[in-house]
Amino acid sequence: MQFHTKRALFEGLMLGQRHDEDMNWLAFQYISGEMSSEEAQAFEQVLDDNVAACEAVSQALTLADAIAKNVIIDIVHSC
After folding, report:
1. How far is CA 46 from CA 6, 12, 21, 26, 68, in A?
2. pLDDT in tens, 50-76
3. Are 47 and 77 spatial neighbours (Cβ–Cβ below 8 Å)?
């Protein structure tokens, strides 16, 4: 099933229709503050009872942390 809007994607996630790529992208948007407040609230509802969504957020945070550390190392080495 292809989702054409974020709202449809959120509804699909809440119904348990799991789409890993979509969920990973939404998790990244969530942690980076790229969602509107309405979108963030809808995603938080998904997080309430969707373990896979929680895992996607955890993975997104781990990836963002690793990227940030590498950027800092690169900056330090270039000075």
Report:
1. 12, 10, 15, 11, 27
2. 888 899 999 999 999 888 877 666 566
3. no
pLDDT in tens, 8-53: 666 666 666 556 677 888 899 999 999 989 889 888 988 998 888 8
Both tokens of 14, joined, read 């809440």
The pTM score is 0.68
67, amino acid identity: I
Q: Which segments of 3-79 does DSSP mark as H helices, in order?
A: 6-14, 20-31, 37-49, 51-78
Q: Three-state SS for 25?
A: helix
